[in-house]
Amino acid sequence: VLARHQDFPVIPVDAADPAALANFPQIPPQQAMKSVHLLYPDGRVRKGYDAVVGLTRLLPGYRWLVPFMKIGVVRSVGWAVYEWVTRHRHQISRVLGLSGSNSPKGC
Fold first, then answer.
1. pTM more than 0.90
2. pLDDT tens digits for range 30-41
3. Buried-exposed string 32-53: b where 16+ CB fall within 10 A, e elsewhere
4. Residue 2 to residue 48: CA distance in whole angstroms
5. Radius of gyration of the chain (CA)
6. What number is the average pLDDT over the span 75-96?
7. Cystine design at 1: which of 12, 13, 17, 66 (Cβ 3.0–4.6 Å)?
8. Residue 37 forms beta bridges with which residues?
9. Residue 23's pLDDT band (cuts 50, 70, 90)
């Protein structure tokens, strides 16, 4: 879960921490564990690939990618890749050496 804050554009929230998620009642804990969520100041929520597009919009060096990421076929492929990575995130973490005591609770 990522939330925008007035002093800092993005705040990561550990989806495995019920106390942290309590601050975001608009996201059910089960959903928070399944995909990344992006909350906008106006209350809109985007998840999965759409959250990735929203985050890309916040990165100064990568904003130019956003219109490309919204093209139909790119968006379809983006969602497919996002879902594949989501299904295999634990294996990917192990291969990259990110699993274990140094990984976030949700990995």
1. no
2. 888 889 998 888
3. beebbbbbeeeeebbbbbbbbb
4. 11
5. 14
6. 94
7. 13
8. 47
9. confident
The tokens for 28 are 């059910």
Can you give the pLDDT at residue 106?
47
DSSP string computed for 20-73? HHTT-TTS-HHHHHHS-EEE-TTS-EEETHHHHHHHHHH-TTTGGGHHHHTSHH
- Report the Cα 30 to chain-centroid distance in Å: 14
82/7 Cα distance (integer angstroms): 29
Using alpha carbons, select from 29, 73, 27, 30 the residue that is nearest to residue 51: 27
Please tell me whether residue 5 adopts helix, strand or coil conformation: coil
| DSSP letter, residue 17 | -
d(CA 20, CA 59): 25
